[in-house]
Design a protein that fits this description.
Mn(2+) binds at residues 118, 120, 125, 165. It comes from Jatropha curcas (Barbados nut). By secondary structure, the protein is mainly β. Helices cover 12% and strands 34% of the residues. It has one helix and twelve strands. The N and C termini lie far apart (60 Å).
Length: 182
């Protein structure tokens, strides 16, 4: 029989091997939702309350619960900051409730239309420039850095979750961007 020190080493190696094999079969993923979707409604009659909203009976949903028309219409940029955000969230598309996505059209006035510094505490933003030229940026927290870039039509930029960021139209023409949020 081996020494007690050798036996402890064998037991440790055996335990480590079993753990490694167990972890190799494990997979990490987001849990499946309890339902396919939860179309938000204001009327609680015959509804289920999920994520701060009442859910419409799935048998009563329609294509209109999952769509929006009018994102092609420019927003009014005649204000102090020279921008307008048309947000498509659960209030405009009830079918996005609990799906973890939203979208926005942002219109910018020429020569300085600004989406002022702001944060999204629960979402990463991805911005697609459709018209204009933008100076964009965000500030990191660890280490403290300022990351910025000039974007042109067709360019995309990502603003990480919870970081202060902005967009500024430096073009002499109107600017339009689409922002997606998780």
């Amino acid at each position: 029989m081996g020494s007690p020190m050798k036996m402890k080493g064998v037991h440790f190696l055996l335990a480590f091997t079993v753990l490694a094999l167990a972890l190799s079969y494990a997979s990490a993923y987001d849990p499946s939702p309890l339902q396919d979707f939860c179309v938000a409604i204001d009327e609680p009659k015959n509804a289920v309350f999920v994520n701060g909203k009442f859910c419409k009976n799935p048998n009563l949903t329609t294509p209109n619960d999952f769509s929006f028309s009018g994102l092609n219409i420019p927003g009014n940029t005649m204000n102090q900051v020279g921008s307008n955000v048309t947000l498509l969230n659960v209030d405009r598309i009830p079918g996005v409730n609990t799906l973890g996505v939203s979208l926005a059209r942002i219109d910018y006035a020429p020569n300085g239309g600004l989406n002022p510094p702001h944060i999204h505490p629960r979402a990463t933003e991805i911005l697609l420039v459709l018209e204009g030229t933008f100076y964009v940026g965000f500030v990191t927290t660890n280490p403290n850095r300022f990351i910025s870039k000039i974007l042109h039509e067709g360019d995309v930029f990502v603003f990480p979750i919870g970081l202060i960021h902005f967009q500024f139209n430096i073009a002499k023409t109107n600017g339009v961007a689409i922002a997606g949020f998780n």
